[in-house]
From TrEMBL:
Pathway: Lipid metabolism; fatty acid biosynthesis. Residues 107-190 form the Beta-ketoacyl-[acyl-carrier-protein] synthase III N-terminal domain. This is Beta-ketoacyl-[acyl-carrier-protein] synthase III. InterPro entries: ACP_syn_III_C (IPR013747), ACP_syn_III_N (IPR013751), FabH (IPR004655), Thiolase-like (IPR016039). It comes from the Bacteria. It is found in: Cytoplasm. GO terms for molecular function: beta-ketoacyl-acyl-carrier-protein synthase III activity. Its EC number is 2.3.1.180. Pfam families: ACP_syn_III, ACP_syn_III_C. Residues 251-255 are annotated as: ACP-binding.
Length: 323
């Protein structure tokens, strides 16, 4: 059978780093509160010349370089983002053009923080369905542009950045020892749409709006939803938490990551944590975490890796793959 293997990966971060202490003159908060409640120590914030498209392009180029490929080798770009450069066209086609790619096709995927997990699962289906042989999957966000910088309960939590992987069709046996995407499970439930949303849009206010979140409500649902979807993915693949080499969760809050890993019985040393460095970068958080763990030599070819995310909607999902 056809498998979608990871051929390369990359990342891009805005130049400017904003430390927790930098908020102290802006809103009533402290480094101690932010670290204790979230694990976040710093985040990158985009300058005017850094956009979802430019960061996504840079991450895409880095992934292509690591794969030893050029844009000419790619058939499809799937961009996961909730902060597109424009309402339309899709920022994916902007990135396609920036890469000098005038063949194939490109589209955006909007599942907020679960966007990258949705995009990998979607790209896998395009590859296995025969519509594409190589897909550039990018998560890129500039959440700094939709934050209310006077709201201390949200502005300290998010950051900007981009990460990408190149998925490629390869022949597999259909077994769990194959490289590539092995199982995926996606969920959403719009009953929760007002717990985490942006209060503007083309069809309602005609404005972009700002992020609103009932943090405690999100927290309350997060661990149960994450563990449910991961257990469904384990069952699909016929594995247990003990079989995993690496758990790469969405990086929103260290307490949610710790509680999910504990409930699933995933050992602490197998959990990749980058929320301290990047904050919550929404759809970019999982590929950014991947880029750190691949660059420092933790994630290696042949490792069994579990990706997971949960976000606005709510949306949630997991992908199991062998690197
Ligand atoms: N600094 C200092 N105090 C603050 C801050 C801040 N930055 N923000 C809120 N507080 C205050 C609140 O006003 C509140 O004060 P009060 O008791 O006087 O009313 C107090 O701290 C406690 O507030 P809580 O909201 O109960 O704090 P909690 O422990 O729940 O932590 C947090 C808040 C960090 C937001 C947590 O609820 C959380 O992480 N939730 C999940 C968020 C999340 O994961 N979001 C991403 C989802 S992914 C996506 O799709 C974007």
């Amino acid at each position: 059978m056809i498998r979608s293997i990871v051929r390369g990966n990359g990342a891009a971060l805005p130049r400017r780093i904003m430390k927790n202490a930098d908020f102290e003159g802006m809103v009533e908060t402290s480094d101690e509160w932010i670290v204790q409640r979230t694990g976040i120590r710093q985040r990158h914030v985009a300058a005017d010349d850094e956009t979802t498209a430019s960061l996504g392009e840079a991450a895409g180029r880095a992934a292509l370089d690591s794969a030893g490929l050029t844009p000419a080798d790619i058939d499809l770009i799937v961009l996961a983002t909730s902060t597109p450069n424009n309402t339309f066209p899709a920022t994916a086609v902007d990135i396609q053009n920036r890469l000098g790619m005038h063949h194939g096709f490109a589209f955006d995927m909007q599942a907020v923080c679960s966007g990258f997990v949705y995009a990998v699962a979607t790209a896998d289906l395009y590859i296995r369905g025969g519509l594409a042989k190589r897909v550039l999957v990018i998560g890129s966000e500039t959440f700094s542009r939709i934050l209310d910088w006077s709201d201390r309960s949200t502005c300290v939590l998010f950051g900007d950045g981009a990460g990408a992987v190149v998925l490629e069709a390869a022949q597999g046996t259909g077994g769990i020892a194959d490289r590539g995407v092995l199982a995926a499970s996606l969920r959403s439930d719009g009953v929760h749409k007002e717990k985490l949303f942006v209060d503007g849009g083309p069809s309602t206010t005609g404005t972009v709006g700002h992020l609103k979140m009932e943090g405690r409500e999100v927290f309350k649902h997060a661990v149960g939803m994450i563990t449910d979807v991961i257990e469904a993915t384990f069952a699909q693949a016929g594995i247990t938490a003990q079989d995993l080499d690496w758990f790469v969760p969405h990086q929103a809050n260290k307490r949610i990551i710790d509680a999910s890993a504990k409930k699933l019985g995933i050992a602490e040393q197998k959990v990749v944590v980058t929320v301290d460095l990047h904050g919550n970068t929404s759809a970019a958080s999982v590929p950014l975490a991947l880029s750190v763990a691949v660059a420092d030599g933790r994630i290696k070819k042949g490792d069994l890796v579990l990706l997971e995310a949960m976000g606005g909607g709510f949306t949630w999902g997991a992908v199991l793959l062998r690197w």
